[in-house]
Design goal:
The structure is a single chain. By secondary structure, the chain is mainly α. The protein has one domain. 28% of the residues lie in helices and 4% in strands. The protein contains 2 helices and 2 strands; from the N terminus they run ββαα. It has a two-stranded antiparallel sheet. The longest helix is centred in the last third of the chain and has 19 residues.
């Protein structure tokens, strides 16, 4: 039986690579967290040291509900975010 999942059961498939936190200079709302080289001051290894208290813009699922659900499906939103994620990882490997 194919059962539709509740929104609470669906979350962005983050790999925990930390690449998004190494390029915060590309996000105006995160300028105060930039240590001067585009890396977030709260990045520790590949993880956020303030994860439970991180800014709203860093909360992919929250931002979908708050802003983007009016403009696109969750699947399209995730696909767009994953495309950026893949690009950041590719750029790091080159």
């Amino acid at each position: 039986m194919n059962q539709k999942m509740n929104n609470e059961d669906v979350h962005f498939p983050c790999t925990g690579c930390g690449e998004c936190c190494r390029h915060i200079n590309r996000v105006e709302q995160l300028a105060v967290y930039d240590r001067g080289d585009g890396v977030c001051i709260y990045l520790s290894g590949n993880l956020c040291s303030i994860y439970k208290d991180r800014p709203e813009i860093c909360r992919v699922d929250y931002m979908y509900e708050k802003v983007f659900s009016n403009y696109m499906s969750r699947e399209d939103y995730y696909a767009a975010n994953l495309a950026v994620c893949r690009k950041l990882r590719e750029d790091r490997n080159h």
